[in-house]
Every structure is written in C-alpha cells, then in structure tokens.
Amino acid sequence: MILELLLSLALLLYLILLLRTLAGIHHTRDQIHQTASPFVSVVIAARNEEEHLPRCLQSVVQQTYSNDSYEIIVVNDNSTDGTETICLDFAGRHSNVTYVSAQEDKALPGKTNALDQGIQKARGEIILVTDADCTVPPTWVEFTAKRYGPDVGLVGGMTVQKASTWFEGMQSLDWAYLLGLAAAAVAQRNPLSTIGNNLSFRKSAYQEIGGYRKIPFSVTEDFMLFQSIVKTKKWEYLYPVDGRVLVVSQPCATLRELVRQKHRWGRGGLDMKLSGMLIMVVGFATHALLLTTLVMGSFFVAASCLLAKIAADYFFLEAILRRLERTDLLKYIYLFEAYFILYVLLLPFIVFFGGRVIWKGRAY
User: Fold this and answer.
1) Which residues on neighbouring strands pair with residue 70, listed in sequence order?
2) Enclosing domain of residue 356
C-alpha cells in the first residue's frame, strides 16, 4: 500500500510538471521582427565528418536569406579524413564560405577551440552555430535572424534526428522531449539549457563574457555558453518551437555511441540549476517506483500509472511536434517510453561510474 501511494504521489508531481511545461509550449516567449536583417555568420566545427559534411554545407548554402547578408565559416577541427578537402571545395565554389583550419590550443581543448577560432574570424553581428552532421531548412538563417530585436542576445532552437528505424525514432522523440522541456522553461523565464547544433547569439554578448576562453570548461560547451550569457541579465533570450528553424541531426548509430552521448550530457548536466535537478529527480523517482510497483506491488496500480504517464508524454510530444510539423515521429512513442524509462534509471550510474567522457575521439 505504501509503495502504491508513493507511486501515485510521484506520478502526480510528474503530471503537474508536464502540465506546466505544456503551458510553456503553448505560450512560448517568441517574437519575429520582419524588418530585422542583421549580418549572420554561420559557424560549423567539423571533426572527421566527411560522410555528413557535404549535406550539411549544401543545406546551409541554400538559404532564403540573401547571400550578401550571411557567411559560412567551416572550421576543420584536426580531422584525419577527407573533411579538409570538402571544406576547400565548398569554399572554392561559394563566395560566402570561408575555410579555417583550427590550431591546437592546450588552454582551450576540443570543440570549444575550433568554435572559438571560427567565431573570432566571423564578421557577423549574429553567430549561428550548427554541427557538421546536421542539415537545416532553407528558412533557418532568415527566421533565426528575424528573432533578433535590439534587446535579444541569444536564441535557441529545436533539433530532431533523422528517423527511419525504431532505434533512430526513439532517439528523435527523446530529443524532442528534452528540448521541448528546455523551450518551455525559457518561456517561463527559467532557462535550463539548449542544444549547440541549433544555437545563435550576438557576437557582442559572446565577447562580453570573454567567450569560451573565459567561461568554465564543460563537456557540454553549449550549455555553459547559454548559461553564461543568460546570467549577465543584460539580454533577452528566446527558444522558438518553429519548424522553419528546425535542425535535423544524425542519430547515434550504435548502443555504445548512444551511451557515450548520454554520459557526456549527464556529466554536463551536473551543473544544472536546482529547478532542473528537481525535474530530473521527479522523473527518476516516477520511473523507479513504476518498475518497483510492477514487480513488488499492485500490477493494476502500476499499469494504470504507466498508461497515465504514456498518455501525458504523448500529449506533450504531440504539442511540440505539431508546431514542428513532425507528428510522423509519434509512431515511435511506445518504443520511446521503454527506452526513456530504462535510460532515466541507468543515467545516474552511467554519469558517476562511467569513467572519462569519450566524444569524437577525445577523452575529457
């Protein structure tokens, strides 16, 4: 009886948090300035991305924004494959593409070094960042730039993953869920996090905080940059849920790669503010009590609570994906739920006992 009561209380908290988050999705703080046309610098750091980089660059050069109003800076992050050749080829064929070869810097390790070198070369008032394994819609630059009223310093963006198999589909729903939480939190002036493959900020805001060289190092550099700019309290920040600025990323190809991604995200999330930690604690408790009650308590109560949780998750995801015009991903909902429960329970053990973070051939 006590187990069932604890589960009911945990589920009630979970549903309240999700309902509050759903309200944030329906009332996102967003604004479009039709006359805004700042010069934009798209910065892409690429490390051994010969397979994906051509599609990425092709999508970025085919924008509705005037070619005279944006540039693309692609930074080769010490690749050992054909990445450099691809970069040089695009730079030779497109006048607004610039190639930068990142120089090693022990004071600034990994991807942050490549990004910083690209940003330093940028001429744009607005820096727009994506990853080399992503593709962007033709309206990405235009409708990101239009968010920049005079008081806006940072704009996040939604990302889903290419999904043609169940393994890819459950990852894509996971991203939609987590980034939906982040967008809703921004709408409620509780900025938690963002994703670095669809992130933009004023170059002046970046310089004011000293850039990556001055902020604390993190294996999730996007999270730390986001928090550093927000903490200045000088700039407004937005997180639109808008299909016109939706980025599509490549999913993890193997279970090992997926575990490493979660390890990296989890380690970076240790710097999360208290409100974010509480959301994670409620999620962990709800999932743990669901499984425990299924095994040791009332199957009927556990099954009823599980169905209520799945229904709530479905309506939350549907609200996000409808805005992104990607409701086709909802067909993976049941696989996502099984995966979601499992990784939420395993994540603390992965984070604290997983050893060093391994990402893109580097250890941190």
Assistant:
1) 40
2) 2-25+272-363
